[in-house]
Write a structure and sequence with these properties.
By secondary structure, this protein is α/β, with parallel strands linked by helices. It has helices at residues 2-21, 51-59, 108-121, 139-150, 162-168; strands at 47-49, 64-67, 89-91, 96-97, 130-133, 156-159, 174-176.
């Protein structure tokens, strides 16, 4: 009996040890590099939601969904006459896509784009519920949600599984184009 108890406890330790080792602390500032990596389970000031909670908010039209995944750049050195087609982005239906706004440091033009995009989709109501996402294990949505909090938005949710978790649950996706930028 004692031997089986010891084996059972050892198994529990082995199974839980990797999970404990993967716990990512929440940084004080923004994540500045290695954006596709394990993310924290928390974001101070925001609500962290799972796929089921995100779906309920979407179904009930109870929040504005904001995708911040970067748009792939045109390859360097591609001749000007060469045809370049962006990789299509498939988003949670009804979302707004504000690419390049999840980096840790934003150029002034990108910050203005983020601010004006949020002001437009919330009708300047900083208490309007917002859900930030990109892909699973992507710090960009964490950074963007943190930035929205810093801008004074008070009802911020972070959907850390993003479109990966959404699609895995069998929820619909639709093609999306980025919101227009005044500086481009």
């Amino acid at each position: 009996m004692t031997r089986w108890l010891g084996l059972a406890l050892g198994l529990v330790f082995l199974v839980s040890a990797p999970a404990a080792a993967e716990t990512v602390p929440e940084p004080e500032g923004y994540r500045l590099s290695d954006f596709r990596a394990a993310v924290p389970a928390t974001l101070r000031g925001a609500r962290v939601i799972d796929t089921q909670q995100a779906f309920a908010l979407w179904r009930d039209k109870a929040a504005v969904f904001v995708d911040v995944l970067p748009r792939p750049p045109r390859p360097a050195g591609l001749p000007p006459e060469a045809v370049w087609r962006d990789k299509p982005r498939f988003d949670i239906p009804g979302s707004v896509w504000l690419p390049e706004t999840g980096y840790g440091e934003l150029p002034d033009a990108s910050l203005r784009y983020f601010e004006s995009g949020l002001a437009r989709v919330t009708a300047k109501d900083q208490s309007r519920p917002l859900v930030f996402y990109c892909l699973a294990d992507c710090w960009m949505s964490w950074n963007a949600a943190k930035r929205a909090l810093a801008l004074g938005y008070s009802n911020v949710s972070w959907f850390s599984q993003g479109t990966d978790g959404w699609a895995a649950a069998g929820h619909p996706l639709e093609p999306r184009e980025p919101e227009p930028r005044a500086d481009k």
